[in-house]
Amino acid sequence: MNDLYSKYKSLRTGAVADYIPELAKVNPDLFSICTVTVNGDVLQVGDFEHLFTIQSISKVFVHGLALEDHGRDYVLKRVGVEPTGDAFNSIILDEQSKRPYNPMVNAGAIATTGLIKGKGATERLNRLLEMFQRYVGKDVFVDISVFTSERSTGHRNRAMAYLMLNFGMIDGQIDESLDLYFQQCAVMVNCRDLAVMAAALANKGVNPLTKEQAVDSQYIKDILSVMYTCGMYNFAGEWAYKVGLPAKSGVSGGIIAVVPGQMGIAVFSPLLDARGNSIRGVKVCEELSQQFGLHLFDCV
Ligand code: GLN
């Protein structure tokens, strides 16, 4: 990991997300790699304590909570599991089966967040925060300036929500669900937290440091399947081919990857490629997978 860190520290291609000023002002040099095994061994290098907003990586965990709230049949009826081959913020919807394509693209994630149970906005937010806390093993917070900024500029996400309402794909509480979606994207984590969260997914839903059950183990295969096919958006196919691990990226520069039964991997580097994936993050995961034979179909 130290070798990979040194090798890619000098790679400065790509650009930080700039759709809101709060993300644009991040230091592009920040870089960290962290792995957590199912036994709780932690390896970390670089800026692993630096906090950033989780962004789209949240979609994985909210999908898990929606599965716990409603079961897999109902969730599948409301949100598909089909990769789009399109960008994360693509507006295309599956009008035939009356649902967004998958929970990893924005449209599907907004619909998934809409499924989270609770009496009113506060209870729903608290349920989400408690869920994140089980994965991370400590209190988590929403960055208010990122949240308010996303809310006031998220016209595209708002438009998607209204389109889905028009097609009868989601229910009426659009503003409440959009706020919850913007809040989940603005949850603060560091690279080490992400690796622990990924490790819980590798460990039948149990946080390997606190031993707490973060998500019902019966839904791990649903969560990981969707990550595998859809987690890296329009790079998901090439990622599956080269890295061969369930993964998820976010526009703030995080990537998590899960080696089932073994460990969680997280990389943080805010310089993104055109698809919104961290450039150093992709490189590090490709090399880790090759060097350690982590591809799921290695030696099959
Ligand atoms: N908050 C971002 C959005 O909804 C999350 C997207 C991402 O991380 N890819 O546009």
CATH topology: Beta-lactamase
Main sheet makeup:
5 strands, antiparallel
User: Helix fraction?
Assistant: 40-55%
Q: How does the helix and strand content classify structurally?
A: alpha+beta
First-last Cα distance: 26 Å
Q: How many structural domains does the protein architecture include? A: 1
Q: What is the assigned CATH homologous superfamily?
A: DD-peptidase/beta-lactamase superfamily
Model regions low in confidence, pLDDT < 50 over at least 5 residues: none
The fraction of residues in strands falls at: 5-15%
Number of strands: 7
Outline type: globular
Helical region count? Answer: 13
Q: Widest sheet: strand order?
A: 2-1-7-6-5
CATH architecture call: 3-Layer(aba) Sandwich
Topology as H/E string? HHEEEHHHHHHHEHHHEEEH
EC number: 3.5.1.2
Family: Belongs to the glutaminase family.
GO molecular function, one term: glutaminase activity
Catalytic activity: L-glutamine + H2O = L-glutamate + NH4(+)
Describe this structure in words.
Its EC number is 3.5.1.2. It catalyses: L-glutamine + H2O = L-glutamate + NH4(+). Pfam families: Glutaminase. It comes from Dulcicalothrix desertica PCC 7102. Homotetramer. By secondary structure, this protein is of the alpha+beta class. Helix 1 (2-9) packs antiparallel against helix 13, helix 5 (106-114) packs across helix 8 (155-166) and helix 6 runs parallel beside helix 9 (174-185). It has helices at residues 2-9, 21-24, 58-70, 72-78, 106-114, 120-136, 144-153, 155-166, 174-185, 191-202, 220-230, 236-242, 279-292, and strands spanning 32-37, 42-46, 52-53, 188-189, 247-249, 254-259, 263-268. The strands form two sheets. It has a five-stranded antiparallel beta sheet with strand order 2-1-7-6-5. A two-stranded antiparallel ribbon has the order 3-4. The chain is built from 13 helices and seven strands. The protein starts with a helix and ends in an 8-residue tail after the last helix. It is globular. Helices cover 45% and strands 10% of the residues. The model has no long low-confidence stretch (mean pLDDT 97). The protein has a single domain (2-292), classed as Beta-lactamase (3-Layer(aba) Sandwich). Glutamine binds at residues 55-56, 88-89, 106, 150, 157, 185, 250-251, 276. The site of glutamine has 11 residues, from loops.
